[in-house]
Design brief:
290 residues; mainly alpha
Length: 290
């Protein structure tokens, strides 16, 4: 009888231990390691055709594959128009299909800044000294920093002092880039903590809204790119970032404290259950044999 009771106690304790370990693992799990649903791609005859042509035409496909547009599910027709569902080149590039082709350097601004795409960035860029330069020389335009087919998102990685020092002094270029780099690092830090809070099911709607406002100001700095605009907007961005970082870190601290309390509670429950089981077993072992 004792052996049967001991077996049941052992089974209960083993099951409880598994539940505890699973709960602790769930608390410490990195949201980035969660399984992601693979994107379902659609057939794009533009890519197939360019690949078959080889050379620079195939190279365009390789460049586009690593772009933010490709990762976001946008195909060739999103920018160039045309009919990507047909393998007939003439039909794919016909006027009826709305094919745009390759824009000139001056046209690249309106090409990228269409209302359904990057209209806000274009409006900001029009305030920049670079806009007049594009109208006269065709550069520096959107593709000068973001790339033509291998389009990259706005980040410090797409510009360098070498790029800027073609027109500006190296000292000025490095000063501007250092300022942008500092803001971007702060934004990345805040975004990482917001994702952590989202994984804990915390309410971060206010933080996300404030983050969008800061990003808009940041993009304004990057696209307008004038000394006066950077100095003025940077002060606003710094204040917004300081406020946002303070609020996010406070929520992160509360969330981590709750995690610790949760783990301590689980361990305490385990100790209590184990103690009760041990006490019951000890009491049964002391009962006189019949």
């Amino acid at each position: 009888m004792k052996s049967g009771f001991m077996a049941r106690c052992a089974a209960v304790l083993f099951t409880f231990a598994l539940l505890c370990s699973s709960a602790i693992a769930a608390v410490n799990a990195d949201p980035a390691t969660r399984a992601k649903t693979p994107a379902v791609g659609s057939t794009d005859h533009c890519l197939d055709c360019h690949k078959s042509l080889g050379g620079k035409h195939a190279a365009i496909v390789d460049q586009w594959t690593g772009s933010v547009h490709s990762k976001g599910g946008r195909g060739c027709n999103s920018c160039h128009g045309g009919d990507h569902t047909t393998g007939d080149a003439k039909r794919a590039k016909s006027r009826e299909s709305g094919f745009n082709g390759k824009p000139s350097p001056k046209e690249s601004l309106t090409f990228c800044g269409r209302p359904e795409c990057h209209d806000l960035a274009l409006q900001q860029f029009k305030k920049s000294p670079h806009y007049d330069s594009v109208m006269k020389k065709g550069a520096p335009s959107c593709v000068s920093c973001h790339g033509g087919h291998n389009v990259q998102r706005s980040s410090i990685n797409i510009i360098s002092d070498k790029t800027c020092s073609g027109c500006h002094s190296v000292e000025y270029s490095r000063q501007i880039i250092s300022s942008i780099f500092s803001i971007e690092k702060d934004l990345e830090f805040i975004e990482t903590n917001i994702r952590f809070l989202e994984s804990k099911k915390a309410d971060v709607q206010n933080e996300l809204s404030q983050m969008e406002k800061v990003k808009s100001l940041f993009h304004q700095i990057v696209h307008v790119f004038s000394r006066e605009e950077i100095q003025f907007t940077r002060k606003i961005v710094d204040l917004e970032i300081a406020s946002l970082k303070s609020g996010v870190l406070m929520k992160v601290d509360v969330s981590r404290r709750m995690d610790i309390i949760y783990i301590i509670t689980i361990i305490a429950c385990f100790i209590i259950v184990f103690g009760l089981a041990f006490y019951v077993f000890w009491m049964l072992s002391r009962r006189p044999k019949r």
